[in-house]
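S1.2 Input.
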Amino acid sequence: MSKAKIKYNSVTKFSTIREMLEIAVSEAGDKPAYKFRENGDVREVTFREFRDTTIYLGTALKSMGLANKHVAMLGENCYNWICVYLTMLQSDGVYVPIDKELTAEPMSFVLNESDAEVLFYTKTYEKFVEENKENFPKITTFVAIDSDDDTENTYSFKKLIEKGKEIYTNGDHCFEAIEKSTKDMRMLVYTSGTTGVAKGVMLTEHNLVSCVYYGLHVATLYGDGLSVLPYNHTYEAVAGILVAIHLHCALAINENLKTVLKNLQFYKPTNIYLVPAFVEVFYKRIWSNAKASGKETALKILIKVSNGLRKIGIDLRRKLFKSVHEAFGGNLIEIICGGAPLRKELGDFFDAIGINLLNGYGITECSPLVSVNQNDFNDCATVGIPLPCCEIRIDNADSEGIGEICVKGDIVMMGYYKQPTLTAEVLSEDGWFKTGDFGTVNQFGQILITGRKKNIIILDNGKNIFPEEIENYIMGIPYVAETVVYGIKDEAGIDIGLACQVFLSEEKLKECGIENGKEQIKTDIDDALKVLPVYKRVNKIIVVDEAFQKTTTNKIKRDKINVNL
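S1.3 Output.
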């Protein structure tokens, strides 16, 4: 296996989150760590101010006997969310980020199942907390993030900080004196799978430190970022927030999905973490804008000219595609993507216009990063090279080398909280974790993902089909918003082919000048799939009127698909 192109970065060593934060303060204490809007103005917080806030909050919690408890956080992305997060990672307690998109019943389940005794929450969820307190009796302490004053049964976040500051200033450094093991559980993250009940993934401080330290050996980030994805998911919480601290980079906090483009132009970041669905939206919007302005043909020609110039060592991409770059703020160098495989077409396009689109692979159970592409060794058809702290094994590989991806190393979780049977099903005694994802490793050491184990369609002739591969081709059609591919059988249970359901974008249909999407889509899907073997082509196409049900990580719930249409 040739890995000659792989170059690992030099990274400052650290062993605890507190040490990581202290390094940032000593080397960049007066630099902005966070930028965000507050009361109509943009506020900046330095690394030193941020570190001090975590110490004050931790001191207050320690004085109340709460720093070693399971502490839950419920709220949208905000600066104070990060304050609670980093405080608990420095404590001897356990941080439990709650998925803000859950409905009342599953949210109450997670709060109870996690054994949380303290709940921080933002104003958005004030009504939910007040109406459902009896549903999570284990929680004895409530903290309102946005409240200025204590109430009868709820502490004010602001008052807690003031209390901790007073205690600390008077010489009580109890929080900083906490002794703990980096191998103990420090974070409990509940997955939101496409099927089944959420499972609590137990991550240690060593897991999180390893993800940051070894992840930066592989990935290179440039300058400041815009923080978009939900903090309650480990992708943004670890690969985004913690990595930015160790790089001493400022993070601008995006308010909501509607403000992403506006904030790209305002904060002018050099990097941003996204999921493939976001990248698809950006890609399709660029082309639809070009078509609407009559510049589609010119853009295609410009890409060919630019690619030709690059072959002879002339790179003019940032000048030739200046208008596209300005739409992203003008400074964007890279988009780090994860969550699902990317279409090669997307990688080729962003490379052509001068923005590195780096696809990676991760799973919550691996803290979450397993592999990522590099700027100088990037192939978006793959999910990059593994972190140097982990081993990769392909189990039960077929004739093409495709099998279940297994991971072993410092990033692998302790197990599922209070679920020893489920843990034993995926985590062997010698430390190998079965990801449930199928793929292979190419000759350069890069991992290729073909699909989820539970989604595989096995035909009667023994052929294995990964619906994600076919769905990627269909998603290349500009007016397709969502699609799901599955196998169909006749009344006798015999395979009769593949079916796909598609949800079309009315806006894109109008932009494309298509009056009858239900008819046109049949032709366009046939055309998109003609490069695939016959057994991978769909022979039944259903256009649905509503978007598919999804998890809070925006993945389609396949078990909710009505396959009898």
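S1.4 Remarks. The mean pLDDT is 93.
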